Amino acid sequence: MAIELGKLGIWRHYSGVDANFAAEAEKLGYGAIWLGASPGGDLAYVDDLLAATDHLVIATGIVNIWQDEPASIAKAYERIAGKYPDRFLLGVGAGHREATKEYKKPYEALVDYLDGLDKAGVPVSGRALAALGPKVVKLAGDRTAGAHPYLATPEHTRGTREILGSGKLLAPEHKVVLGTDAEEARAIGRATVKYYLGLSNYVANLRKLGFTDEDLEGEGSDRLVDALALHGDAATIATGLRAHLEAGADQVIVQVLNEDPWPAYSALASELL
């Protein structure tokens, strides 16, 4: 890959990332920021983030295929990549059926969307695919630079790497809460994790990873929340994140759930970089 992401990235809602945020992340040593929550349109704010930094990569995590046509996103890609070569990665995905009225046959829709990006000139090396299940993981390996799993565990990372093989990007997201009060940290983690227990694609994937009905009911068991939202001191969290790298990830993407994320970003960069 021409795009160098580094081994540690940040996942954050695109509305919470500005030029100052990007510059501080780069200063700490993070290699990429993945802009979450279906950023779309002309991606004009990406230019500002790249202009404020020297080598940080900005990736979309993800552009939702139901919201923007491939031709329009390709124009945004061409603009950004032309100004900032090898510093923008177009992450695309199908989202989830509960939030999308048009959600039909997502695999076929992804194939069609990638065909559209091909036609519009977006290179395979400049795009990644949100992928959980094996069929879409294989598609990510065949048609893009690689896979960006969300709400993943190291076990999932290991299985994903086996499907992708070597030489393809694997960049899973993982949530963290910096704090040694387990009850308080778990409550913060659960407040985010519980949302995904109403989304069928994530629930199906968690079942494949061995979580039971008891784990998945209500707001989630402690076992589930602890697996999906690592908590503790920086060294403890770093051990959990490092497990993704040991399982075959090229980059692990950190989503900090603390209200002020910077203490966690700083401490984890010290531990992992």
TrEMBL record:
The keyword Magnesium does not apply. Gene3D superfamilies: Luciferase-like domain. It holds the Pfam family Bac_luciferase. It comes from Amycolatopsis balhimycina DSM 5908. GO terms for molecular function: oxidoreductase activity, acting on paired donors, with incorporation or reduction of molecular oxygen. Keywords: Oxidoreductase. It comes from the Bacteria. InterPro entries: F420-G6PD/mer (IPR050564), Lucif-like_OxRdatse_MSMEG_4141 (IPR019922), Luciferase-like_dom (IPR011251), Luciferase-like_sf (IPR036661). This is LLM class F420-dependent oxidoreductase. Residues 20-251 form the Luciferase-like domain.
